[in-house]
Write a structure and sequence with these properties.
The protein is about 55% helix and about 0% strand. The chain is an all-alpha fold and about 130 residues long. The longest helix has 15 residues.
Length: about 130
């Protein structure tokens, strides 16, 4: 069984927030030593974000969207207002959609299957194992 302190140290080295690690210590003990610690650190920090998203700074990113996708999102976002009744920023609307998909493992797996499965592979999970 891996040493929890060694796992915590490797996660911190990979960028995980130490305060969040204290909250998920029970789950840490199950992480194998050959795990992808950078990916796991991202997950740890994401769960911390879900707990207190207001404290996080936003990082500017530049994305391109197909015009019909952009137009639809823009029109949908115009119907959303913040707590003060002001128009909700499009970037926050997109972030909310992304977070909604990511925060539920089953929903995210469904997204991956439906979006990235080849035709005829719908019954296989993401790692290529057949579902039972």
């Amino acid at each position: 069984m891996p040493n929890v302190e060694v796992i915590k140290k490797r996660l911190i080295e990979a960028g995980a927030d130490p305060q969040i690690l204290d909250e998920v210590e029970d789950e840490i003990k199950d992480i194998p030593e050959d795990a992808n610690f950078e990916l796991l650190a991202s997950f740890v920090n994401f769960f911390g974000f879900l707990e207190d998203f207001e404290k996080y700074k936003r990082k500017r990113v530049n994305i391109t969207l197909a015009e019909p996708v952009y137009d639809l999102l823009k029109n949908l976002a115009t119907g959303v207002v913040d707590a003060e009744g002001k128009p909700y920023p499009m970037s926050y609307f997109l972030e909310d959609i992304i977070v909604w998909v990511l925060k539920d493992a089953d929903r995210f797996e469904q997204f991956l299957k439906e979006t990235y499965s080849e035709e005829g592979e719908e019954d296989e999970d993401i790692e290529g194992e057949t579902e039972e």
